[in-house]
Amino acid sequence: MDEKQIGSISVTRSLLAAKKMTPNKKLGQNFLVDGEVLQKIAAAVNPQKGELIIEIGAGLGALSQVLAQSGAPLLLLEIDAGAAAHLSEYFKDKPNVKVVCADALSFDFAAAQAAYAYTACKLVSNLPYHLTSQLTERLLRVADWSQLVLMMQKEAAERLLAQPDQRGYGPLSLEIAYRGEAELLFKVASGSFYPPPAVTSAVIRISKRAYPLKIADEKLLFSLIKAAFALKRKTLFNSLSANFKMDKKQLQAALQQAGLDGRRRAENLALPEYIALSEAVLAGQQQ
Q1: CA–CA–CA angle 257, 261, 266 (5° rounding)
Q2: How far is CA 269 from CA 30, 181, 248, 279, in A?
Q3: Dist. CA 223–CA 226, nearest whole Å
Q4: With bands split at pLDDT 50, 70 and 90, how would you rate the model's confidence at 187?
Q5: Are residues 146 and 233 in the same domain?
Q6: Is residue 213 one of the residues assigned to a domain?
Q7: 20 to 30 A Cα–Cα from 85, which one of 59, 117, 171, 275?
Q8: What is the mean pLDDT of residues 72-88?
Q9: 136, 141, 139, 138: which is closest to 156 by C-alpha?
Q10: Are both 135 and 223 inside the same structural domain?
Q11: What is the CATH number of the domain that holds 228?
């Protein structure tokens, strides 16, 4: 097989037939068959020899092959046993590539990264559409990454990158803003996949903040954000009163200390305002 053609429709179909595999809808398997898109994703990752690259959901290895050419250590996660076996065979002569059959929702990223002598790590994935939020949230929290390059449904990308008062703005938008700087790189048409999904996709890149935001209690911050959005159609004060364990008088005092009007709604507040509120709440708890 010509390695340069692994991402083409014809070779993808041939591989699936040879391995007696069919795209698994439950796993969200839509294989990239567009060489230009593969090159653009690899360029966005920009793998270097001194950093570990983890590809989540490597599939048949179309993107993996491009990434492997850099010589950087490449760890491929694939939940599908048949695809993982194919990847192990395909990359058996590539010493910089390791294949693990595992579920990214339970995989121990910390242990895997500890096995490599590199501090820098980039994660890349064509996320299953139905697991986009769940996987993104987990990757943000459990992996020690410098960059995430993620492909997802275009509407999902717009939600994750949304700003206050924009459609889709929510807890995950705020967590992304807290942990890094995100950008939408480019869109990907459905015809770039086999089988083609019924939606347009997009690739985003999240770069970890060079200087992390300083906050006394990160857990408290995200608890407040979650509570605020639990009843997002209600005012901030009413939503927090119903979903955050705090006396109403103390809550009102915290809002005033943070300089916030409790009549606003969760979707109106930017990250610095939530941080100010969490610091005010913490100060009240310590009195």
Answers
A1: 110
A2: 37, 18, 20, 15
A3: 5
A4: very high
A5: no
A6: no
A7: 117
A8: 95
A9: 136
A10: no
A11: 1.10.8.100
Domain count, the chain: 2
Single-letter code of the amino acid located at 190: S
The residue from 152, 179, 208 where one domain ends is 208
Cα 161 from Cα 204, distance rounded (Å): 9
Dihedral angle sign, alpha carbons of residues 78, 83, 84, 86: negative
Do 259 and 143 have their domain in common? no
End-to-end CA distance of the chain: 70
Q: Of 37, 28, 64, 45, give the one whose Cα is nearest residue 148.
A: 45
Helical (H) or strand (E) element with 18: helix 9-18
Phi, psi of 17 (to 5 degrees): -65, -45
- Among 241, 233, 224, 220, smallest CA distance to 267 is for 233
106: its two tokens: 């339970």
**Count of CB atoms within 10 A of residue 153's CB?**
18
Condensed to tens digits (0 to 9), the pLDDT of residues 196-255 reads 999 999 999 999 988 888 899 999 999 999 999 999 899 999 999 999 989 999 999 999
Strands (E), the chain: 31-32, 52-56, 74-78, 97-101, 121-126, 147-153, 180-188, 193-194, 201-208
Q: Are residues 127 and 230 in the same domain?
A: no
Per the structure, the complete domain to which residue 14 belongs is given by 3-208
Q: Are residues 163 and 200 part of one domain?
A: yes
pLDDT digits (tens, 9 = 90+) for 16-43: 888 888 888 888 889 999 999 999 999 9
Cβ-based burial of 75 (10 A; exposed 0-12, middle 13-18, buried ≥19)? buried
